[in-house]
Amino acid sequence: MKLDVIKLDGGTAGSVELGDDVFGLEPRADILHRVVRWQRNKAQAGTHKVKTRSETSYSTKKIYRQKGTGGARHGDRNAPIFRKGGIYKGPTPRSHAHDLPKKFRKLGLKHALSAKMAAGELVVIETAAMDAPKTSALAKQVKELGWKRALIIDGAEVNENFAMAARNIEGLDVLPSVGANVYDILKRDTLVLTKAGVEALEARLK
User: Which residue ranges does the record annotate as region Disordered (predicted)?
Assistant: First the structure.
């Protein structure tokens, strides 16, 4: 399939051929959900922690004698039954990551790209480069193009001046092709690929 290529100033720059095996699939929500869930679980810190009975600060002395009080039999105040005692089977630091096959992750990225294409939210630009890191100039161009929440994916490397200019623009992210991922693609309203980005992604997803 063909898609028109534009410049950052809004002018046209021909067209580009997009592979149906990467951009022309029927998007499946179940595949996208599984890959996003894998990404978010892997990123989760997992640092939640509670104090167990052995870590609370009460004395370990038996609070009263075993028999003759008419009350329940207790050891020390660290028992989970008491206020400020240790927590029984509470959360401890752990990794929330789980495995997902590489083939499935690659398939998820294809479906994310196809979903943006099907929704008409995919834009191809000629290049993402600037001679000087001018945030105001880039912000004006982005506003004129109507990009409010956009992700720009370049080729193997991102132009340093362009990345610096985009850094302070709210809602605009820039990634090299190797950093392209399902979660970042789906959470933005517009996906912008450079011509180098299209070639790099198609080569990566063969």
Answer: 64-99
- Percent with pLDDT over 90 in the chain: 94
| Residues 58 and 77 sit within 8 Å (Cβ to Cβ) | yes
pLDDT category of residue 175 using cuts at 50, 70 and 90: very high
CA 17 to each of CA 22, 23, 35, 185, 205: distance values in angstroms, whole numbers, following the listed order: 11, 10, 27, 20, 15
List of E strands, the chain: 2-6, 12-17, 122-125, 150-153, 172-175, 190-194
pLDDT of residue 199: 95
What is the model's pTM? 0.84
H or E element in which residue 64 lies: none
- pLDDT digits 0-9 by tens, 119-163: 999 999 999 999 999 999 999 999 999 999 999 999 999 999 999
For residue 198, give the nearest of 156, 162, 149 by alpha carbon.
156
Instruction: Answer whether 121's CB lies under 8 Å from 186's CB.
Output: no
* Burial status of residue 79 (CB atoms within 10 A of its CB: 0-12, 13-18, 19 or more): middle
Q: Where are the alpha helices (DSSP H) in 7-134?
A: 20-23, 29-43, 102-118
Chain-wide mean pLDDT for the chain? 95
Backbone angles phi, psi at 174, to 5 degrees: -130, 130
